[in-house]
Design a protein that fits this description.
By secondary structure, the chain is α/β, with parallel strands linked by helices. The chain has two domains: 161 residues, serine acetyltransferase, domain 1; 102 residues, 3 Solenoid (UDP N-Acetylglucosamine Acyltransferase, domain 1), CATH 2.160.10. The protein contains seven helices and 16 strands. Strands 3-6-9-12-15 form a five-stranded parallel β-sheet. The protein has a five-stranded parallel β-sheet with strand order 5-8-11-14-16. Strands 4-7-10-13 form a four-stranded parallel β-sheet, with no helix packed on it. Strand 1 and strand 2 form a beta hairpin. Helix 2 runs antiparallel to helix 3 and helix 4 packs antiparallel against helix 6. It is globular.
Length: 326
């Protein structure tokens, strides 16, 4: 009879554990797509999250990070943060470029040192640091757009503390900067962190203009090749997606093509609207009403609405005996 252990009174069959271990091991080793014997060449998700947290302290000092700061000590605070961010980000950039090289070489073995990867990491880090003041300016405009666009906001402080759209945009502005610098994998890791926290899914490749406001935000999807102009606003459940996926002669999906729509300046897209296709352009100053499904362009200055839904009323046969209207 196989040996058994008991945990909290529940019997665990050692024979079954051995059998399961063997079958799971064979499953792992038989599928190279879902395992790595070493992830030393991969970026680290926890490190990426730590970098984003420290960057948020730079973007919104006093709101996030240390709660008490002074003007006289601000430069030292910023300098200390930048040093930590630089050290962490340098390692992750190096890992990302090593990952890219390993994938291109398709080799199970990989030298942990890569002089070209280290050179590229240093170059990208320097450019990214130079861009931080511009990213802060964009986020400041996003905060103002949220305050101006939502009568429920009592102060810009509330927007920074509470609005998931600002949190998602703070991550996106960083991920997009790294994406444009051709950093592999790391921008997607950052974007998916924001997605998991906010329910807002923005691919780091999406180009988003100034003063952008995502109200509520849950269920928003913005695809890789989306272009959004200045002073745009979208609501929960909006999808800016692909209408179809082009395939090559072998039936494989073609990557790198323009698949997602363009919103020109001052466009508003209300809740639940779906706009698809790389050739779909929503003209400046247009409004897309809730629930609209669009795969064609809209000229500037138009309002698009879905067919009205007929509403009918009937008495409720299951009405409880004691019912009080407020």
């Amino acid at each position: 009879m196989p040996a058994a252990n008991q945990v909290h009174g529940v019997s665990i069959d050692s024979g079954r554990l051995d059998d399961a271990a063997g079958r799971v091991t064979r499953s792992i080793l038989g599928d190279p797509r879902t395992h790595r014997l070493s992830t030393a060449f991969l970026p680290d998700r926890e490190e990426a999250e730590a970098i984003l947290e420290r960057l948020s302290w730079l973007f919104f000092p006093g709101f996030l990070g240390p709660r008490s700061l002074s003007k006289s000590g601000m430069r030292d605070h910023v300098r200390t943060l930048l040093e930590e961010i630089s050290q962490r980000l340098a390692c992750q950039l190096n890992a990302a470029f090593r990952y890219e090289r390993r994938v291109q070489e398709d080799s199970p073995l990989f030298d942990q040192r890569c002089a070209e990867c280290e050179r590229r990491a240093g170059e990208v880090l320097g450019i990214f640091l130079d861009q931080l003041p511009d990213i802060r300016e964009l986020l400041s405009l996003d905060v103002q757009a949220a305050f101006d666009g939502d009568p429920a906001a009592h102060h810009a402080d509330e927007v920074i503390f509470c609005y998931p759209g600002i949190r998602a945009l703070a991550v996106h502005r960083v991920a997009h900067a790294l994406y444009r610098l051709q950093v592999p994998l790391l921008p997607r890791i950052m974007a998916e962190r924001a997605h998991s926290l906010t329910g807002i899914d923005i691919h780091p490749g999406a180009r988003i203009g100034r003063s952008f406001f995502i109200d509520h935000g849950t269920g928003v999807v913005i695809g890789e090749t989306t272009v959004i102009g200045d002073h745009c606003r979208i609501y929960q459940g909006v999808t800016l997606g692909a209408a179809a996926f082009e395939k090559d002669e072998l039936g494989k999906m073609v990557r790198g093509t323009r698949r997602h729509p363009t919103l020109e300046d001052h466009v508003i897209v209300y809740a639940g609207a779906t706009i698809l296709g790389g050739s779909t352009i929503i003209g400046a100053g247009s409004v897309i009403n809730g629930g609209v499904f669009l795969t064609s362009s809209v000229p500037p200055g138009h309002v698009v609405r879905a067919p009205r839904v007929d509403v009918t009323l009937r008495s409720n046969p299951e009405l409880p005996p004691a019912m009080f209207a407020i």
